[in-house]
Amino acid sequence: MDPVLNSGDTAWMLVSTALVMLMTVPGVALFYGGMVKKENVLNTIFLSLIAFSITSVIWVVYGYPVAFGTDIMGIIGNPANLLMNGISVDALAPLAPTIPLLVYVAFQMTFAAITVALIAGAVVGRMKFSAWLAFVPLWITLVYVPIAHWVWGGGFLAQLGALDFAGGTVVHLNCGIAALALILLLGKRKDTRLLPHQLGYSVLGAALLWFGWFGFNAGSALTAGGLAGSAFIVTNTAAAAAMISWMMMDVIKTGKPTLLGAISGAIAGLVVITPAAGFVTVPASIIMGFATSIVSYLAVAYLKPKFGYDDALDVFGIHGISGAFGAVCTGIFAAPFVNSLGTGALYGNPGQIVTQIVAIAVVAAYCFVMTLIIGYAIKKTIGLRVDEKEEIEGLDTNLHEESGYRV
Amino acid sequence: MKEITAIIRPDRLEIVKAALEEIHCHGMTVAEVKGRGRQLGVTESYRGSDYRIDLLPKTRLEIIVSNEDVDKVVDTIVKTAQTGDIGDGKIFISPVENVVRIRTGESGDKAV
Questions:
Q1: pLDDT at residue A137, as a whole number
Q2: Which residues 6+ apart lie within 8 Å of A380 measured at CB?
Q3: What ipTM does the predicted assembly reach?
Q4: Alpha-carbon span A232 to A213, nearest angstrom
Q5: Which chain A residues are Cβ-neighbours of B45 within 8 angstroms?
Q6: Distance in angstroms (rounded) separating the CA atoms of residues A335 and A354
Q7: Among A169, A172, A166, which Cα is nearest to A339's?
């Protein structure tokens, strides 16, 4: 059957694209902004905002063509459409033949942007803004684009059969590992406490993330049909289950439920279901949601203090850990009657777990090493970290000559 | 004359003020301050880690009274600001050499 544009699919993908944009700004920006001290709120929001802008330009200049161009030896795409040259407004997307290619480009652009914006949560309060301006384009080019090609663009991990519906490996594991590499280069903040100055912002940010995630996961069906509906309901269910289990962990450890814990759990649940959203059933989403908060909670409350790395807002602990866990769970729970493209161990294909683990290991190893190289190069040239005085006084006034609160 | 400086919980201010009005003690200066006592603040928990918050928001009242009113005012503040829990605050009483009302130039007890 010849590809034919479907206006329902196209409308849904335009909405989904806008929803994913909403996740970055204001979603991530507010989620992170509320958790930092008040002297850093603007800098923290700015990191997300500028990441979105830089990625938006890179994506249409060469990011999309390289990530999704015709595969070259499983490694990289052939950049035939630089600056979107040669793509007519009526051209349909090869991977989503009922929507315009330019809509697909825009949808994928928002994924790249939120991935790099998420990394900011680990480095807030101590990274030079100029270093961030250098890091974003380098990381998108050298880390995100090749990994997106390997998993989604027809590269070797896709050929191996790795499943990643909406970005458990490409987005969440990737940003979590990059965050870990970058903070090892940056070192600890002078004051490593997490004392949110305005948790209300974080609640609004988390709610916007949850809302936008419907576009992220259900949009990844690339059609407005049953699969999108299935992805939508498992996304919501996993987030809700994970919020409840994080709250239970809070009560077990401290005797009281906390709001920050509840929203952290919701984000962990959204992360874990992301690679699986188009492959698993509702019961699987409940199990994955409940389990992932326990895993991420242990990483944040025990692993981090034990190893002493300063992941300011727990990007590795929540996105990295729950992203990897979700990728493994996809290998277990993928149901062929939900999506014929994926069969997990529970349905007679135990080898899928191995494939998922290989994908996790490859992405984590490449991302970690490459992010270290990029970070080291920046450290040796323009420097990664702000002066001690700037860090203690706060970055808003020192780096931007602005203050979040006049009163 | 004495200066009564009372450090109280911010949420007790309205009750203390109303009670002081009932005993005809009207003048006061109020400031929002931060401080800590012997217990060194409170503990808050974020994502499973505990943090000590050792400077807590308090309200400071400065009241100048004549010597014979000191006990009455102090008793009223204690009675109304007290919850019985750690963090109720403290009252300091210090001598005041003189008071001058700027509008009229009056001084001493008449200016209190």
A1: 98
A2: none
A3: 0.80
A4: 9
A5: 250, 253-254, 256, 258
A6: 16
A7: A166
Position A29, amino acid: A
Give residue for tokens 């509840």: A262
**Whether residue A305 has a cis bond before it, omega within 30° of 0:** no
Q: List the structure tokens of A110.
A: 């928002």
Give the single-character DSSP code of A42.
Answer: H
- Which token pair is B37? 């006592």
Give tens-digit pLDDT for A117-167: 999 999 999 999 999 999 999 999 999 999 999 999 999 999 999 999 999
pTM for the model = 0.91
Cβ–Cβ contact A198 with B under 8 A: no
Distance from C-alpha of A283 to C-alpha of A89, rounded to nearest angstrom: 41
The identity of residue B76, as a single letter, is T
pLDDT digits (tens, 9 = 90+) for A272-299: 999 999 999 999 999 999 999 999 999 9
Q: Are A369 and A139 in contact (CB under 8 A)?
A: no
User: Measured between alpha carbons, how far is A171 from A168 in angstroms, rounded to an integer?
Assistant: 6
User: Which pairs from B87-92 meet CB under 8 Å and 24+ separation?
Assistant: B87/B9, B87/B37, B87/B39, B87/B42, B87/B56, B88/B8, B88/B9, B89/B6, B89/B7, B89/B8, B89/B9, B89/B37, B89/B58, B90/B6, B90/B7, B90/B37, B91/B4, B91/B5, B91/B6, B91/B7, B92/B4, B92/B5, B92/B6
CB A351 within 8 A of CB A377: no
> What is the b/e burial string over A176-191, where b = at least 16 CB atoms within 10 angstroms of the residue's CB?
bbbbbbbbebbeebee
Identity of the residue in A249, A260, A302 whose CB atom sits nearest the CB atom of B46: A260
Is the minimum CB–CB distance between A351 and chain B shorter than 8 Å?
A: no
A297 with B45: Cβ contact below 8 A: no
Question: Are residues A264 and B47, on separate chains, in Cβ contact within 8 Å?
Answer: yes
Residues A101-128 as b/e (b if ≥16 CB within 10 A, e otherwise) read bbbbbbbbbbbbbbbbbbbbbbbbbbbb
Check: CB of residue A352 under 8 Å from CB of residue A161. Answer: yes
